[in-house]
Amino acid sequence: MKVLAIDTSNLVMGIAVMDEGKVLGEYITNLKKNHSIRVMPAIEQLMKETGVRPAELDRIVVAKGPGSYTGVRIGVTIAKTLAWTLKKELVGISSLEVLAQSGKYFNGFTVPLFDARRTQLFTGLYGQAESGEFENLCEDRIILLKDWLEKLQTTDKKILFVGNDLPLHQETISEVLGSQAVFGHVSDHNPRPSELGRIGMQREPDEIHSFTPSYLQLAEAEVNWLKSQGK
Amino acid sequence: MKKDEIILAIETSCDETAVAIVKNGTELLANIVASQIESHKRFGGVVPEVASRHHVEQITIVIDEALIKAELEPVDLTAVAVTEGPGLVGALLIGVNAAKAFAFAHGLPLVPVHHIAGHIYANRLVKEMTFPLLSLIVSGGHTELVLMEEHGTFKVIGETRDDAAGEAYDKVARTLNMPYPGGPHIDKLAQEGEPNIDLPRAWLEPESLDFSFSGLKSAVINTVHNATQRGEVIKPEDLAASFQASVVDVLVEKTFRAAEQNGVKQVLLAGGVAANKGLRKALEERFNNTGYDLVIPPLHLCTDNAAMIAAAGSVAYQKGTRADMALNGVPGLDLEAQ
Ligand SMILES: [Zn+2]
After folding, report:
1. How confident is the prediction along chain B (338 residues), in pLDDT tens digits per residue?
2. Sheet containing strand B266-270, strands side by side
3. Partners of residue A19 on adjacent β-strands
4. A221: which chain B residues are within 8 Å (Cβ-Cβ)?
5. For a Cys staple, B16 with which of A31, A109, B93, B304, CB 3.0–4.6 Å?
6. Contacts of B265 (CB under 8 A, 6+ apart)
7. Residue A108 φ/ψ, nearest 5 degrees
8. Distance B272 CA to ligand 1 centre (A)
9. Other Cβ atoms closer than 10 A to A182
10. What is the bridge-based pairing of β-strands B79-85 and B27-35?
């Protein structure tokens, strides 16, 4: 199975081209630069280098969010369009699940996080399930850091935190969780597109036309409108 | 036999997800528009984040529909055209990235198009252009007079200094408690009223071809306010008719003056407000028996659509305009730099 994996959901931009048991190529940057300008040239370049033509792909895997609304939409739009027009399969994977893979051999829980402003986080809890698989244990959410830490305090294992936004919150996490908290190394914080591709190979394909990003929150105007309706 | 040029175009600059396919620059094979107007009505205007979300939901469906309607496969296409700007940046990005992915998937040339060039070229789907020509573009975001000496070159000789005409319509409609979008409601109401309320006309400097509608908008609001204070009732029909007369007077007169000054052969009306009956009628009357060829496209080509992007894209394609995979959406794209 030949796979193109695309992640533009946060600051890190990642692309991978994979062929079954092999990662043919991977491109990752962690820069505050425009994904809309850079991602298609990067895909074009990486596919050219790896010698995989668009028509040879079997599957497009995309990081579906949460993250920057605009960023998520760029990746999802490209993935949907490629998959649909090339008549290939589309799989969307949580951006948090991709990042969590940094902890897949960690003996404990892994908590990936992206800053969501106003002391909120996009986060979730990952770890070994009873089946032995590394998977999502507590669903992805947007939550106040304070509330999330209260919840995590009630668990009984060490917790590995990963994500490039960690420096914003590390102090608070340490204060609340003490030695229960473990922080990833500098090289653990970029979500890796090859992990995105690998997980994507194992999942059931999504329906392409109806596929939408996972924003985890309504547009602000929607929230205000619902309020005004007394809902 | 020369091979047909078939262009698929994508337009997502505001709140319509649109895809069209046009053959040889003028023959419309498909023109699909998924409007979000119902969704934005409850907010009283277009909410950019909501618009962007809808575009992602619609984009592949609309491309699919266009190809089915035209009974074509991607392999039959010559190029992909897309609105590069101006517009809402988040909305533009969906069309631009879909167009890039589509072009990349099939190895097709990518042609960037200016949204206003698109509006002007909607006319070419109706009638061949004769140069020099003058185009009046009136929409929710634009009020411009554009002079064209030949295909693909644009000179803005007049533009609004504040609100676009469509914007003024929406704001006045809100004052009259009409639902969004206000333009069609005012137009309809105006047909039933008399323009008997004195409202200002912004002629600006004697030689100027620019427009200004913010003063008029304020005058309407003041008129309503003062009447309410005095306990008088203004007939909304008359107010709508008076407002419309003021907007239309200036638009038509400046367009006529610009046509005279520049010795044009053809005068085109473009943009969403071109759907306005009052404006169409006034233009027709003013240009009747003047020797100018006045072209007013049918309504479905005046509002935002992708057929116009394909029509403009065809000319750009023939001129060799191309974009690479780094193409971005540009919210404030300059028409004259095209
Ligand atoms: Zn428009």
Report:
1. 678 999 999 999 999 999 999 999 999 999 999 988 888 888 888 899 999 999 999 999 999 999 999 999 999 999 999 999 999 999 999 999 999 999 999 999 999 999 999 999 999 999 999 999 999 999 888 899 999 999 999 999 999 999 989 888 988 898 888 888 888 899 999 999 999 999 999 899 888 999 999 999 899 999 999 999 999 988 999 999 999 999 999 999 999 999 999 999 999 999 988 889 999 999 999 999 999 999 999 988 999 999 999 999 999 999 999 999 999 999 999 999 86
2. B155-159, B143-148, B133-138, B266-270, B293-295
3. A2, A22
4. 43, 47, 49-50
5. B304
6. B130, B131, B132, B133, B292, B293
7. 155, -155
8. 6
9. 17
10. unpaired
Residue A146's contacts (CB-CB under 8 Å, 6 or more residues apart) are A119, A172
pTM, rounded to two decimals: 0.95
Please list, in sequence order, all residues whose beta carbon lies within 8 angstroms of the beta carbon of residue B225, skipping any fewer than 6 positions away. none
Chain B residues close to A74, C-beta within 8 Å = 93, 97
Nearest Cα of chain A lies from the Cα of B96 at a distance, in angstroms, of 9
Buried b (16+ CB within 10 A) or exposed e, B30-61: bbbbbebeebbeeeebbbbbbbbbbbbbbbbb
ipTM higher than the 0.90 cut: yes
Nearest to A77 among B43, B74, B98 (CB): B98
Sheet (strand A2-7) strand order: A22-30, A12-19, A2-7, A59-63, A89-93
Selecting from A36, A69, A215 the residue whose C-beta is nearest the C-beta of B96 gives: A36
- Cα distance from A158 to chain B (closest Cα, Å)? 38
What is the whole-number distance in angstroms between the Cα of residue B37 and the centre of ligand 1? 14
Chain B residue closest in CA terms to A41: B325
